[in-house]
């Protein structure tokens, strides 16, 4: 049983130094009273690390990365990472979770989002990418909350 909001705050704190060095602002919003999630914290931390690492790589100095953790009806946790980078093309969004798919930069193995998708699916959640032309990319995923 894990507090997804606290786990996300821990991951954000781990990226604070790198973000400051790149002159990128990190913001986080976590709703009060989030339900707990039955999860492998190490694996969901890996998902968040991947999403934040990608967002930092594609966000220029002066940009920001906003992460939110909310719930609508206490049965599902929604985690969203939005960056103000260059954004993905529609083709990149459609293939974002394919193995060996890389963005426009040659960095990385092209496996990070595939691994993230598989980990989220293994937890009973879903993950998706949304392009925001001219204003970055948003990757969001869900995790089922524990019912009391």
What does this protein structure show overall?
With 148 residues, the chain is an alpha+beta fold. It has one domain: 2-Layer Sandwich (Heat Shock Protein 90), CATH 3.30.565. Helices cover 36% and strands 24% of the residues. It has 4 helices and 5 strands. The protein has a 5-stranded mixed beta sheet with strand order 1-2-3-5-4. Strand 2 and strand 3 form a beta hairpin.
Keywords:
36% helix; 5 strands; alpha+beta; 148 residues; 5-stranded mixed sheet; Heat Shock Protein 90
Topology:
Elements (H helix, E strand, L loop, with lengths): L3 H18 L3 E6 L10 H18 L5 E8 L4 E8 L6 H6 L16 H11 L4 E5 L5 E8 L4
Helix pairs in contact: 1-2, 2-4
Short description, anyone?
By secondary structure, the chain is an alpha+beta fold. The protein is built from 4 helices and 5 strands, in the order H-E-H-E-E-H-H-E-E.
**Succession of helices and strands:** HEHEEHHEE
- Counting DSSP E segments of at least 2 residues, the number of strands comes to 5
The low-confidence runs, each spanning 5 or more residues with pLDDT under 50, are none
**Tally of DSSP helical segments:** 4
Strand arrangement, major sheet: 1-2-3-5-4
User: Oligomer, anyone?
Assistant: single chain
The computed structural class is alpha+beta
């Amino acid at each position: 049983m894990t507090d997804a909001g606290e786990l996300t705050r821990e991951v954000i704190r781990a990226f604070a130094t790198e973000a400051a060095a790149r002159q990128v602002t990190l913001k986080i919003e976590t709703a009060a009273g989030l339900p707990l999630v039955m999860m492998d914290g190490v694996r969901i931390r890996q998902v968040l690390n991947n999403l934040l690492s990608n967002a930092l790589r594609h966000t220029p100095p002066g940009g920001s990365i906003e992460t939110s953790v909310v719930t609508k009806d206490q049965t599902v946790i929604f985690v969203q990472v939005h960056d103000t980078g260059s954004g993905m093309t529609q083709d990149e969004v459609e293939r974002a979770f394919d193995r060996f798919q890389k963005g426009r930069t040659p960095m990385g193995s092209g496996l990070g989002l595939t691994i993230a998708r598989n980990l989220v699916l293994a937890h009973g959640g879903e993950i998706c990418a949304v392009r925001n032309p001219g204003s970055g990319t948003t990757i969001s995923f869900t995790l089922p909350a524990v019912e009391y």
